[in-house]
Amino acid sequence: MSGGARLRAGVVGAGFIGAVHARSARLAGARLVAVAASTPESSRAAAGRLGAERACKSGEELVAADDVDVVHVCAPNHLHLPLARAALEAGKHVICEKPLALDDDGAAELVAAASAGGLQAAVPFVYRYYPMVREARERLRGGRSGPLRLLHGTYLQDWLSLPADANWRVERRLGGASRAFADIGSHWCDLAEFASGHRIVRLSARTATVVPERSASGTAAFARRDDDGPRQPVDTEDVALVQFETDGGALGSVVVSQVSPGRKNRLWIEWDAADAALAFDQEQPELLWCGRRDGVALALRDDAALSAPAARFATLPAGHPQGYGDCFDAFVADVYAAIADGEAADGLPRFADGRRAVQITEAVLGSAAADGAWTAVPAPAL
Ligand code: SOE
Predict the structure, then answer these.
(1) Where is the GFO/IDH/MocA-like oxidoreductase domain (predicted)?
(2) CA–CA distance from 39 to each of 7, 9, 75, 145, 217 (Å)?
(3) Looking at the 3D structure of the chain, how many domains does it have?
(4) Is the same domain home to 86 and 157?
(5) Complex ipTM
(6) What is the pLDDT of residues 202-224, one digit of tens each?
């Protein structure tokens, strides 16, 4: 991309999240030059639906295209490593959906390849882009709340609560050995560490598959099968319960579920420090609950007194509800700014953060397989 020209983006994977990436790419000023889906026919349909300049026959064709500067990898999880590897080898910047890879070796390979190529490489832990998460981070890491003692919360969804609910993530061969925790527990742990500066050093986990058989999976992200077609056994977890210790001496716990009726996308996290407790609820993202012994206050997205990092993202008109898509827009804009000027904004979730999530997920699976045995989480690579 020559100086001043518009960045040229390609999206591999045209399901629910591929469409979110495509929208944010265009809002960030990129040309959406190509889209690739699972077949040439579905690629052509996706190009029309997403407003891309052309369809590529395959993801492999797209990542090799000379007129693509940045690749958004939004295909099923088992394809993340090969597609991101090929894109980096072709000198492309990469945004890759989590999990970055299905194991730590793959994630480490991608971190090293991005670094060796001097390429921007990010993972959309987009909940970092809620202004009130940044406000919590400033208060926790700035010392205003005192030493952190406890982190706790839940991430609950219901889109897989019935046997008729199908999705490729349910199948280990497509989504990886962990489903619920890798998919959404990773977000919760990323926020827990991002806002507090603490690192999880060991954990004890239990997982369960509470829906033992499901309809055959489909490629659609949230397909519900009403038919009484054949069912197949499920080999990934619906729920995970994790307790953990941090390097800062705090204790924590999180409940992760994709089978909790009525909970659509309910991420709730609380950081309890000596002088104040802070709580963020993704279903009420305009506020940060701030508890003290002398009373409870609410910090609001529209407050004039927000910290600078929070105010940077509190740009929506007052009353405009901040949503998932707004966080994605801010995240993609930060990645594209890093591509343009070579410097990543504070808090940009990079491939190293994606690897971190894979390491925590592996520890969860290892502990759950050992009846909840306390299991070490590797320290992040420097
Ligand atoms: C489905 O669980 C999903 O789309 C996740 O894949 C996203 O990462 C999360 O932000 C919302 O729910």
Answers:
(1) 133-269
(2) 26, 20, 12, 53, 17
(3) 2
(4) no
(5) 0.98
(6) 999 999 999 999 987 654 445 55
